[in-house]
Amino acid sequence: MSDIAIRPAAASDRPWLVAAMAAINDHERTLHDSRQPGAACADAYLTQVEKAIAAHGGAILIALQDDERVACIAFRTVHDDNAAETDDSNVFGYVSDLFVAEPARGQRLAGRLLAEAERHFRDAGLRRMRIGSLAANTPAVRAYARFGFTDYELVLEKRLAP
Length: 162
Description:
Structural class: alpha+beta
Number of helices: 5
Low-confidence stretches: none
Mean pLDDT: 93
Radius of gyration: 16 Å
Largest sheet: 5 strands, mixed
Strand order of the largest sheet: 1-2-3-4-5
Strand content: 15-25%
Order of helices and strands: EHHEEHEHEH
Shape: globular
């Protein structure tokens, strides 16, 4: 495996990040019909992610292999106000997006990027970190479990006939 460098995203990374967000959405679209085609929403979605990071702290990181972009992660701090949760549970680190390009998969890049996000959250004094995944995205769920994530909450869905 070649050396991997991880750095904050720069403005010049935006076209690659839009393509990564489109790829995430296209993959999730094969798993659930709630997703739009990636090309239809990736730019607007990335803008939403960037605004949330700017407002709440966090980052988008890029992983480079031989100076080529191969993976990214987007994460931010969430301040919730759930009266049933403890104070340390109402403020947590949230990973909104994680992408590893097909040729770079299987090299534990997801774990390396998650470790960087965890370091960021720990340095910020947070005690919890969360990530979401479609239930049918078993490769992602396995990768997150390998990194130490455990079940926290399960959202079930029932389709209603019109």
